[in-house]
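Incident review: delayed structure delivery

Summary: a single-chain prediction request sat in the queue longer than the usual turnaround. Root cause was a stuck worker, restarted by the on-call engineer. No data loss occurred. The affected request and its eventual output are reproduced below so the record is complete for anyone auditing the incident later.

Affected input:
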Amino acid sequence: MSKRKHKTLSLAQKYEIIQKLDNGRSPVQLVVEYGVGRSTITDIKKKKTQIAEYMNSHQQQTTNLTLKTAKHPNVETALYTWFLQQRTKNVNISGEILHEKAKFFYEEITGLCGKFWLLTVTGEKLSSNFAAVDPFQKLFLNKVREMNLGPEQVYNADESGLFWRALPNKTLVHKQT
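Output delivered after worker restart:
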């Protein structure tokens, strides 16, 4: 007997499988209908709530194949929010700018940010007052703690723009809904 060919189901198909299981269809029937293994049907059944929540909240985006979560969701949220802000200003953003901004948010949110790295990202060496940096950082961190702010509530932006997964020298246009 030959080995079954690998088949990847979209989230919409997985959602259909969940609905059919809820309506009383047997997993064996679905294995035959979709051409997947029984373990695939079992895995879909285990992720039932996650798939249903995603499909209910993303009605128009049903072409996704997986439910991958971000490694650093706070960074993703900050990056996407900043991206949308820049798009409302009609700022074109290159892949390089996006990459730098992603690095910036990662360093800020995870607390792995060093002074040298900040200076190289902003590129404003001549206009910076180096003597004011340390006192400001301490004052700022105290204020953040005092106000009980989470990382997703603290932003920093300059004139740059942001495009997610854009190649260098190209830009993305966010689909406005």
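Verification: DSSP finds eight helices and no strands in the chain.
Action items: add queue-age alerting; document worker restart procedure.
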